[in-house]
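User: Last request for today: this protein with adenosine-5'-triphosphate, please.
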Amino acid sequence: MPTIHDAVIIPGDGIGPAVSAAVAKVLSAAGAPVRFHEHHAGLAALEDGDDVLPQSTVDAVREHHVALKGPCTTPVGKGFTSVNVQLRKRLDLFAAIRPVRSLPGVPTRYDDVDLVIFRENTEGLYSGVENEIVPGVVTSLKIASRDACTRIARRAFVYAKRRGRKKVTVFHKANIMKLSDGLFLDCVKQVHDDEFNDIPYETQIIDAGCMKIVQDPTQFDLLLMENLYGDVISDLAAGLVGGLGVVPGSNLGDEDAVFEAVHGSAPDIAGKGIANPLALLMSAVMMLNHLSETRKDDRCLKAANAIKKAYNRALEDNQKTGDLGGTLTTDGFADAVIERLNG
Ligand code: ATP
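Assistant: Here's the final one, the structure of the complex with adenosine-5'-triphosphate:
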């Protein structure tokens, strides 16, 4: 086992550099055995005269296998393909995993939310295959392949089994998209029936599912879905627990793992020093847990647990950024966590 684990850090755009710096500071104070190598993507890379997703950044993730990534801005309508989507595709990070949990000291309509969203990360409408077939008429291709649907299903059931999740619910719209969502459903059912029939499994048409989540999120546990649905449901679920400042995520392939918050670059608050670094800090905790599991290094688990305890304490002590009703700056919240690391 190396004495220190090399990992890539991609600060990203908008609030990305500020929240990344705050998180790196907390990890260092917690003694996490990680050495970050900084690489750029997004507008930051373009400003350096590089590609929006430089080959050197992709190569660095391939070399170290683990990255912590800030959000990269994606212009609406025109411009380059989303860096986030490109990175997931080029590294084949096919599974996005987003735990959504109630936090101490963050009162919301519900106090016992505990959901995990599994999003297929490489296909669906995010294939980016769009054409103007005649002037004024465009098509956008939704892709579903048996291999990709099967591997995300298997990853979700493996996770459910390992973590003792109570059931897997697939959100879909197979009543309308009979072939694409129909294939997704077929593949999940097959993986369930052949390999995981001890785990309760159900299907739910997504529009009714949205209504049910906001009525009572505790009726769900692990939610599995294709790419676009996963994107939308992640933000909806974030709204149940305090917003985008508190929902982390991981993008996992067979070889590499990129950890990033669900939120975007939040241009409306960029540069003001008020962004909540917690979502990226929680993503960093997921990264430490991943390192602990894959590299068998208990020091990573210890640092992850210490950081988790410290941010929970900070929230209980009402140490919060503006999005959660507090007054702390990005750095102020990081300092509040650091002060509680050894308490
Ligand atoms: P992008 O184009 O990069 O996706 P966006 O503005 O569309 O950016 P988000 O960045 O996800 O989407 O922001 C949505 C809203 O949530 C914004 O009002 C933003 O300020 C707020 N928000 C997102 N992340 C945070 C955070 N970490 N702390 C505080 N507020 C946040």
